[in-house]
What does this fold into?
Amino acid sequence: MKQKVFLILIIALLIVGCTEDTGQVGVYPQQDAVSTSSESFDILSNDLLNTVVPANSTACYLGKVIDPETDEAITATFAAQFHSFENYTFPNREDIVTDDDGHLCDSIEIRLFIKSTFGDKNNPMKVEVWPLSKNEDNLLKESEKLYTDTDLWQFVDDDAEPVTSKVFTATDYIMSDGQRASVNYSDNVRLVLPRKMGEDIMQAYYDNPGSFRDSYSFIRTVCPGFLFCTVGGIGTMLNLEACTMNINYRFRSAAFPDSIISGLCRFAATPEVIQSTHFESSNLASLIGNDGYTMLKTPAGICTELILPIDDIYRGHENDSISRAAFTLTRINNQDEDAQDDDYALGIPQNLLLVRKQNLTSFFEKRQVSDSQQSFTTSFQATYNCYTFNNISRLISYCQHEKTAGMKAQNMTEAEWEAANPEWNHVVLVPVDVSSTTDGYGYTLQVSVNHDLSLCSTKLVRGTAANPIKMQVIYSRFAGQ
It folds into this structure.
């Protein structure tokens, strides 16, 4: 009986709760309806000389070429330290096989592996290798702020001498055509160091294995690194992918008592230690100020500065949200682009960073990546010959909030605040190298964003009052606002 009563109550509740009126199902209240609108605004642009940029990165350059745009020489010199794995070990001293003179090592060399070459690969160049200083006053320290104009010779002792030199070509003709064609071969410059340097490194281990416990100790007590300087030749610039120092030796092993085993100790210039390139160039100022275009030029040269129309964007839209703000920068082809020698044709910057002008230096000094709020990256679109930033709405909102908060905190009028902060709405476009990785969920994450130090140059249509760059802005608002 109780079950029947309970069932009747349930049926009654279902009948009462049902209705044929479905007119409101899935419909937001009127006050929650969202409307959108769009407008176009003008961006102005100009050139910005940027000849001093942070140069502490994994990119190293070596060589000397004539810049086809300035007819002036660009010279690259670089310094590199070498990383030691934690608690690195050699075989026991008594197991090392020495020659008749008791030498611990057979040879020591440095290999400079070439990623790309600007100029003639068959052009002879001469490089000298200088030892960096162990002296605490001249030591290249981790805290050092290094830029493309930093004098790297300050890290070399006054009484030092080059440890080796070599005349080379980017294409190593000592190797056969078949060897160079092998998938296991990479173009490189081989620099043979005095065998005594290898002896000293190995002896330093046997005297004090703690010197090899980490890179910090290795650099200060064993090998502080080297300076690589172009001293002859012109017409070739190397972009180096890796730099290694190899010590070759022989030893016996208890597992193979009747055999002599060849050993290789390899130290590499890696992100854990310092690599820095110094560039010398001139006459860049002659390239800026054209009425029709602005420039992007590397390795350390010219950026493009944009003035965002934030006041115009918010005028009459104080209560609206900015859903999207997009613009495109059109590239101008060089008139003689097709006629250029491929070896000496300047590349097109492939990645651009958009960053607030006031954050330009700190962004790179702090090794930041783009946060899609105060900095953004985009890639060159070869099909349309342009660069597009699809949405910088968060940057516009951030700058506007910064201004209103600043006016309130400092009790200033809008005109007073903008006069005190004249570049609050200025951003800079910088050619960069972007390294990314993919996480376990398939999302792409930026690992590093560094200045592009390769030889690149391009022109962008200038934004002027008569011919501005157009930004498309989409607004959103709730009904009733």
About this structure: The chain is about 15% helix and 40% strand. The longest strand covers residues 236-253.
